[in-house]
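Structure (tokenized):
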């Protein structure tokens, strides 16, 4: 049996089963009981340091806030 034919038959059968089980495992891990708090914490992480909601038309603070353009 040629190497290509052997690898092709393996990929069509056992590797497909392995990848399907791996996918189901990853999906189960993401939706496992008890992971809701971890996902909520991750989703709200970008708002952690906000003191108040942004105003309409507000500009994002720049990294050089408080420094004038010409002063060094």
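Design, position by position:
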């Amino acid at each position: 049996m040629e190497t290509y034919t052997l690898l092709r038959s393996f990929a069509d059968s056992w590797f497909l089963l392995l990848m399907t089980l791996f996918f189901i495992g990853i999906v189960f891990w993401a939706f496992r009981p008890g992971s809701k708090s971890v996902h909520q914490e991750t989703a709200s992480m970008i708002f952690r340091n906000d003191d108040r909601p942004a105003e309409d038309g507000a500009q994002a603070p720049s990294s050089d806030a408080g420094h004038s353009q010409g002063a060094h």
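Reviewer-requested clarification: The CA atoms of residues 26 and 32 lie 10 Å apart. Residues 1-31 form one domain.
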